[in-house]
Arginine biosynthesis bifunctional protein ArgJ (Undibacterium pigrum), 824 residues
Amino acid sequence: MAVNSPIPVAADLKPVAGIRLGYAEAGIRKPNRKDVLVMELAPTATVSGVFTTNRFCAAPVQVCKAHLEGLHMASSPIRALVVNTGNANAGTGDAGLAAANATCAALAELLGCEASQILPFSTGVILEQLPVDRLVAGLPAAIANLTADNWFNAATAIMTTDTQPKAASATVEINGKTVTMTGISKGAGMIKPNMATMLGYLAIDAKVAQNVLDHMVKQAADKSFNCITIDGDTSTNDSFMLIATGAGEVEVNDVETPEYVALAEAVTALSQKLAHMIIRDGEGATKFMTIAVEEGRDVEECRKIAYSIAHSPLVKTAFFASDPNLGRILAAIGYAGVNDLDVGKLNLYLDDVWVAKNGGRNPEYREEDGQRIMKQSEITIRVKLARGDAAATVWTCDLSHDYVSINADYRS
Amino acid sequence: MAVNSPIPVAADLKPVAGIRLGYAEAGIRKPNRKDVLVMELAPTATVSGVFTTNRFCAAPVQVCKAHLEGLHMASSPIRALVVNTGNANAGTGDAGLAAANATCAALAELLGCEASQILPFSTGVILEQLPVDRLVAGLPAAIANLTADNWFNAATAIMTTDTQPKAASATVEINGKTVTMTGISKGAGMIKPNMATMLGYLAIDAKVAQNVLDHMVKQAADKSFNCITIDGDTSTNDSFMLIATGAGEVEVNDVETPEYVALAEAVTALSQKLAHMIIRDGEGATKFMTIAVEEGRDVEECRKIAYSIAHSPLVKTAFFASDPNLGRILAAIGYAGVNDLDVGKLNLYLDDVWVAKNGGRNPEYREEDGQRIMKQSEITIRVKLARGDAAATVWTCDLSHDYVSINADYRS
């Protein structure tokens, strides 16, 4: 069960004018489950994305990058995105690239556009060839049920080890006009995005210039998907795509405008919500942890320390056990690689409880106070470095028996 | 149960002339267990050590460093080492430093030397004050049973979550004379030494000049304790001490001699054995894994990739399950931070089985061959980068349910 994350209600997910979604059960890995998603875009749409920095980046990621790069040079817009689960098409060499390209070609023919106007995505097992024939065979069924109100099914179609679909909507008023936005995400393991998450798609009905959208997607990812980790394993397939359909009334053509600021803020907030859903549904997660590192010299060192805490198996198992064995947090801070850190000035808080004062145990800290916070399902670890005014926040979950069970049995 | 690591037999552990060992049950954390160890050295002994790079280094580590530094300036040799378990005396501020110094003063008075001639060590829970009164009260009992053949009891006295004591002996012939050496180590969690392991002590009866010993201990640590990881958590208390008692016939005063080379080789081999014992007894370990990264541009990038694989929870759980989900290894290689790595040239082997060829699945690889190797208790993962002739090896273990259980219940 995901930590304090109710299953989204289909009726609450707002259609976004200019994008239609359809799914199929193509039997990629297992029969009788939604495993293919097609998102069809209006010709007015702009699309921008950020991708994994993993050197073993999957074949579809390579194809996406090439098609988006082409976009900046040519005039043919992206017309559709296609996602399959059950197979990551990563570690698959030239055959994998051919499979991703064949998928684009097949969908392009069905939609009457060029293969370069399609963006392909895959998620699932690595180092196995994509069953491209089954994927292509499933495309007509997905096209047959393309509708604007299919977001809930779309969120379901991209799930792998997720226990529940992840989707949310929002609106923002800009100059008296409403922008509607809906996003979906997936991922529960191999989560430490280094550009974006496993898979995330967010559509807005504003009209946004390509270079402005490129800026906005990076800004949103840096404050959301790039601040989460479950197990420190950066995936081969991480992709976060921002789609501006251009079907609504609002238009943003410049980063230096109040319209941009308002829209980017709303997109970032919704991205954060989608990113948090991934952590709340982290494999085996029982706790949602916010790690806030403050008073650092720069953001980089704050992030280093936050990730060091978030990745420590000892910290994560202590939180699973609700055991305030908080010296493990100090150890993780100490080996984070901030080599001139003066630990004698450091303060550590668990929610409102002051645990470590000037590098040692706070004389007024009582074990029962730590215990009380540790039993909560949502906990903030706050570290104050006393050496500057930079800060960074990372979100993560605990490490439980179920994480081991899920990943020991993933392929069975 | 440790992986293929029989419990050492007391009678097989060779006394080393010039060092006597005694233990006590001081009730530091729990009653009725050996938790204090004293090692008394001959006045001819030289001592050198490497310590954790954790910024939260424990109070006893700070005192050790100060006393060893004093050694290089003054003439008073180190006369004894004292180790307690049950409390790490880390994250304890000024009170912790005072406790470590009080321990040295008390032992010095009992042995008739200066406090600066004592090296203190602690291991156990972080962020709790050391019960120094109980520790000091236990010292006379430890001194009362000081003998040269107490290595097995010494190894037992420094255990925490270890399931079995770790100790080994060796001899090496140098110019027709025998050097005898015996070492002990401890540690099973919070293991990713960055200078040395949790605790390791190796005594040799040769006479070795201080600057030569300083060189030898670094060389041995870099090829042993600095190449192991269980959970990536670098401890606050890591210490590896090399003691040359000077009581034997062999003398080494220069690094540039065949005698040095022979002795350093033997010390390194025994250090490796002690380091492997830690991995074999890793918390919850069911597999002993050797990760060999070859054909790299430099050792640094080989180590980065080896540690990335060794720390991946997804790789570790797959090995626990004997599931050849080997794409996870490729993903870990891909995010190791070697940014210009050409994955299209990379080859991956599991023992003798060629899994990935030129970055993709080897067409001749059969799942049942991977399965066969995965079921073994000892496995070598070999990665060939095809970009140079540097290499590095890291030893690690898998991640099991028992790791979570042990660390969720550590303090109970």
Chain A has two domains: 10-280, 288-408. The first strand of chain A starts at residue 19 and ends at 24.
